[in-house]
Every structure is written in structure tokens, then in C-alpha cells.
Specification:
six-stranded mixed β-sheet; 11 strands; 196 residues; alpha+beta; 30% strand
Length: 196
């Protein structure tokens, strides 16, 4: 009886039917390809994790939060927007429970802007909705974020890290004005803008 069934197994397969051995080879190839891709991704994750642990990708500048207002970059007279020789703008701000100092800054439209921030007390968040600006402001470190505003307007800037009971009221503004208007304001309005 078994001998009678063997010849029926050797019959040619109908058109469109692939032999099981060929399917098994194809599945093994795809499995090897997927395992190879998974291994490559794991190598990328491990290498990235190790290199970022050695040297974090963000700007790692330290500062003494207890004396930053006495001398150096973050003294009160140096806060706000300052034009740089290359035509860009640098905005220096301090995050403090429960305010940004200054609470409003002017910048020019279509100009590279570098925000430099530090905190005197706890971790704060710095977020400008509808832009690429979002960072944590950590005591003893200087956070740096770069952007360019493409249209004039007022950008409300909340603290987006819980910093205490008054966190909900910690807001500031970035007033983006046309270049001509900014050049008229720059010599007189360094650290704050007129309340509207």
C-alpha cells in the first residue's frame, strides 16, 4: 500500500504551485535578512548609547547658579537680545521660580537666533510652540537652542517642566518683529519689550 502512494507523490505539481522546499528556502532567506537588520539596528543603538554617555549631544556648559548674577554672561545688564558681529542674535535668559528674566524679548524675523538659558534654582522647561525650540533648563548648566523665525508675531513661552506651586504662571514672550523695526529697537530695548 505504501508503495502505491509513492508514485503519486512524484507527480508534477500543477501550474502556479511552488514546491514546499522552495518556500522553506525563501522563508529562511527572509528570516536571515530580518535577523541581520535587527542585529544592525541593535549595534546602532548600543554605539549611539555609549557615545552619548561619553559625550552628550547637547551643549554641556557649566555655570555656578549661586553667582551667575554677579559676573559673567548672565549678569542683569547682559540679559535679553544682543546682536552678534555675524548678523545673528543671541538671547540670554534666566529661569527662576516662577519667571523668566527678562519676561519678554525682541528678535528680528528671518534672522538666526541663539537662545542661551540657565536656571538659578530647579529644572525648568523652555518651549516655543510652533517652532523647533524645546529644551530643559537645568541649574548649573547653560542650555543653548538655535532657531529662525519666519514670520512676525508674539510667541508665548511657557515653562513646560513642573517647577513648583507657581509653575502655571511661569510664562514669557518672544516678540518677533520686522528687521527694520528691530534695528530701531535694538539700541534702546535690550532686555525687555514694551507690554502690549
Amino acid at each position: 500500500m505504501a508503495e502505491a502512494q509513492i508514485p503519486s507523490l512524484l507527480r508534477p505539481l500543477p501550474d502556479g504551485i511552488v514546491p514546499a522546499e522552495q518556500i522553506a528556502r525563501t522563508e529562511k532567506r527572509w528570516l536571515l535578512l530580518m535577523v541581520g537588520m535587527l542585529a544592525a539596528m541593535m549595534v546602532v543603538v548600543v554605539v549611539t548609547g555609549v557615545t552619548h554617555a561619553i559625550r552628550p549631544p547637547s551643549n554641556v556648559e557649566t555655570i555656578d547658579p549661586t553667582t551667575l548674577h554677579l559676573s559673567g554672561e548672565f549678569v542683569e545688564s547682559n540679559l535679553g537680545t544682543a546682536p552678534e558681529p555675524d548678523g545673528s542674535l543671541t538671547v540670554r535668559m534666566i529661569a527662576d521660580q516662577y519667571a523668566f528674566v527678562p519676561d519678554c524679548v525682541n528678535v528680528a524675523v528671518d534672522t538666526p537666533v541663539k537662545f542661551r538659558l540657565t536656571s538659578t534654582d530647579v529644572i525648568h522647561g523652555f518651549l516655543l510652540p510652533a517652532t523647533n525650540v524645546n529644551t530643559m533648563v537645568v541649574p548649573a548648566f547653560v542650555a543653548e537652542v538655535r532657531t529662525r523665525f519666519t514670520r512676525p508675531g508674539v510667541y508665548r513661552m511657557p515653562c513646560n517642566e513642573f517647577c513648583g506651586n507657581g509653575h502655571h504662571g511661569m510664562w514669557a514672550r518672544v516678540n518677533v518683529v520686522p528687521k527694520e523695526q528691530f534695528q530701531a529697537l535694538a539700541p534702546t530695548e535690550r532686555s525687555s519689550c514694551v507690554q502690549r
